[in-house]
Amino acid sequence: MQVMTGGERMRGDVFDTNCPSRIVLDHVTSKWAVLVLAALRTGPSRFSELRRRIGGVSEKMLAQTLRTLEADGFVHREVAPTTPPQVTYSLTPLGEGIAERVTGLVDWIADRIPEIQDVRTR
Amino acid sequence: MQVMTGGERMRGDVFDTNCPSRIVLDHVTSKWAVLVLAALRTGPSRFSELRRRIGGVSEKMLAQTLRTLEADGFVHREVAPTTPPQVTYSLTPLGEGIAERVTGLVDWIADRIPEIQDVRTR
DNA sequence: CTGTATCCAGGTTGATACTG
DNA sequence: CAGTATCAACCTGGATACAG
Question: How far is it, in rounded angstroms, from Cα B107 to Cα B36?
Answer without folding.
Answer: 16
